[in-house]
Amino acid sequence: MSNYSLAVDIGASSGRLILGHLANGKLNLDEIHRFENKIVKKNEHFCWDIEALFQEIKTGIKKCNELGIKPDSIGIDTWAVDYVLLDEHDNLLTDAVAYRDPRTDGMMEEVFKIIPKEKLYFETGIQFQKFNTIYQLYALKQTSPEVLQKAKSFLMIPEYFNFLLTGKKANEYTNATSTQLVNAFTKKWDHELLDKLGINKEMFHEILPPKTVLGTLSKELVEEFGFDMKVVLPATHDTGSAVISVPEVEDSIYISSGTWSLIGVENRFPICVPQALKYNFTNEGGIDYRYRFLKNIMGLWMIQEVKRNYHDQYSFAELVKLAENEQQFQSIVNVDDDRFLKPDNMVDEIQKYCQETKQPIPQTPGQIAKCVYDSLAESYKRAINEIEEIFEKNFPRINVIGGGCQNEMLNQMIANVTNKEVCAGPIEATAIGNIVAQYMALGEIHTIQEARTTIKDSFEVKIYKNQYVRG
Ligand SMILES: Nc1ncnc2c1ncn2[C@@H]1O[C@H](COP(=O)(O)OP(=O)(O)OP(=O)(O)O)[C@@H](O)[C@H]1O
Ligand SMILES: C[C@H](O)[C@H](O)[C@@H](O)C(=O)CO
Ligand SMILES: [Mg+2]
After folding, report:
1. Helices and strands (H and E) in the chain: how many
2. Cα dihedral across residues 258, 264, 268, 274: positive or negative
C-alpha cells in the first residue's frame, strides 16, 4: 500500500488530478495536473470534448509514475446530468452533449403532458432544471429515436471514463439521482417513469453506491502506465463529493461555489413537499444514502463568461479587485433567469437586464463584476430564507466550499447580507470528498464522521462575520 489515493475532479470550467496522502490523521494534497474544461461545438450541438478529457486523465496518471508514486486507487467525479450512450459493441452512439445545449428547450413542458410536474417531483424529489437528463433523453427521442433504440448502455460522464479505465459499466447513485429518473424512496431507476416516456429501461445499469470498488485497470492501461490501481466509485457527482468535505454540516448551510453555486443542507430523508417544489429545491443522493437538499444558483459561471468577454485580460482575483473599487455602484440582476444560462455575451445580457429594470447600467469591468457578485449574494440570501422557512429553523452558519471560497469580497458580502457566520474552505472540497471516499472503500477511514474530522484537522477555514454589526 502506497497510502496514496488519486482524485480526478472535472468541473465545468476546469479539471484537476490531486493525490491524497493520509499520514498521522492528516490528509495532504498534491495537485499533479490541472487543465481547462470547456464546451465545444460538435455536430451542431454544444458538447464536452470527452476524448480530450480522457487524454488529460491519462496524462495526469502518468505524472504519478514520474513522481515515483503508484496510488492504491483512483476515483473520478464530474458535473452532473450529462451522459453518453453505447451500442451493443460498446461503441459511442452519441456525443457528450452539454447540458447548456438548447436541444432541451421546451422538453420539460412536453414531459409534463405525460407525467404531471407534481407527480414527477413527489416521486423523484429532483429540482426542475430544463437540462436534466430526463429532458435530454426525451429530446433525443424526438430527434433521433433510432439512436435510443440501438442504445445498450447509458453511462454518465464519470462512468464512461470508468468504463475506459476498467471495461466495466455501472451507474453510480449520487450522479444517477441528478437525472430525475431515480425514485427518491426506492433509490432505483423509476421503470414506470421510463416506460411512460418510451425510454428503454434496459440500457440503464445497476446503481452502485459511493465507496464501491468497481475493479482495476485494463491490461492495456497497466502496460501503458506501468502500474495498476483499484478504480473506486466516489460520489461521482462532483457536488456529492464536495458536500462530504463540509467541515460543519450540523446547523449549517453549505454553498458549493464553482461554476454553479449549489446551496443547501445535508439531510437523512427526502423532502418532496409542496413548499420544496414551490421553491424548486432538489433531493440529490449523497454518500451513505444521505440527501443533498439544495438548489442550483447560476453561480460563478457568470463571472467566467464576463472574464471570457473581456478576452481573459483580467484574472478572477483582478476582477474582484476591480469590483472592490466600485463600492458605490449597485445594480442587482436575477441570476437565476434562464437568459444567463448561455447568452451570446454575458456583459451585454447583464447591461440589457439593468436597462430593462431601470437600474444603473454597469459600464466598467469593475461595475460588471460587482453587479454579478452583489446579485449572487442576494440570490444566496433568498435561498437561505427559503431553506429556513421549509425547515422552520435558523441556520447560524454558512460553509462556502470550492474554488469560489477564494473570493474574500464575496464571502464578506454573504456575511453582510445574511448576518450569518461564513466559514470559507476547503477550496478543493470536491477532490477531498473524492479522496476520503476512496480511503473509506479501502478501509483506511471507517466512517464519514472520521472523514470529516480528518478534513477539519487538515484544511484551513477562514471566518467572516457581518462587518456592520458590532460584537
Ligand atoms: N483567486 C480567486 N479569486 C476569486 N475567485 C476565484 C479565484 N480562484 C478561483 N475563483 C473562482 O472559482 C471558480 C472556479 O471554482 P472551481 O474550481 O470550484 O470550479 P470548477 O470545479 O472548475 O467547476 P464546477 O463548479 O463545475 O466544479 C472560478 O470561476 C472563479 O470565479
Ligand atoms: C448541471 C448540474 O446542475 C451541475 O453539474 C450541478 O449539479 C453541479 O454539481 C455543478 O458542479
Ligand atoms: Mg468543481
Report:
1. 18, 19
2. negative
Rounded to two decimals, the pTM is 0.97
Dihedral sign computed on CA atoms, order 430, 432, 438, 443 = negative
Q: In this structure, what C-alpha cell is assigned to residue 310?
A: 473581456
Domains and CATH numbers, the chain: 4-238 (3.30.420.40), 246-425 (3.30.420.40)
| Mutation pick for ligand 1 pocket among 309, 335, 406, 409 (CB with most ligand atoms within 8 Å) | 406
Catalytic residues: 238
Backbone CA torsion sign across 301, 304, 310, 311: negative
d(CA 81, CA 97): 10
- Higher pLDDT: 303 or 248? It is 303
304 is in an annotated binding site: yes
263 CB near ligand 2 (under 6 Å): no
User: β-pairing, 252-257 with 397-401?
Assistant: parallel
Distance of alpha carbon 258 from alpha carbon 46, whole angstroms:
20
Q: How far is the CA of 302 from the centre of ligand 1 (A)?
A: 11
Residue nearest to atom 3 of ligand 2 (CA): 80
pLDDT at position 1 over 80: no
What is the pLDDT averaged over residues 297-302? 98
Query: How confident is the model over 132-183, as pLDDT tens digits?
Result: 999 999 999 999 999 999 999 999 999 999 999 999 999 999 999 999 999 9
**Nearest ligand to the CA atom of 258:** 1
Cα–Cα distance list, 43 to 21, 48, 97, 101, 133 (Å): 42, 12, 10, 12, 19
Nearest ligand to residue 300 Cα = 1
* Nearest residue to 230 (alpha-carbon basis) of 80, 76, 31: 76
CA of 81 to the centre of ligand 1 (A): 20
In angstroms, the CA 175 to CA 372 distance is 29
Looking at the CA of 284, name the nearest ligand. 2
Torsion of CA 217, 58, 170, 84, to 10 degrees: -150
Q: Which of 13, 100, 296 maximizes ligand 2 atoms within 8 Å of its Cβ, making it the mutation to test the pocket? A: 296
Whose alpha carbon is nearest atom 2 of ligand 2?
80
pLDDT over 90 at 471, yes or no: no
Could you tell me if the CB of 80 is within 6 A of ligand 2?
Answer: yes
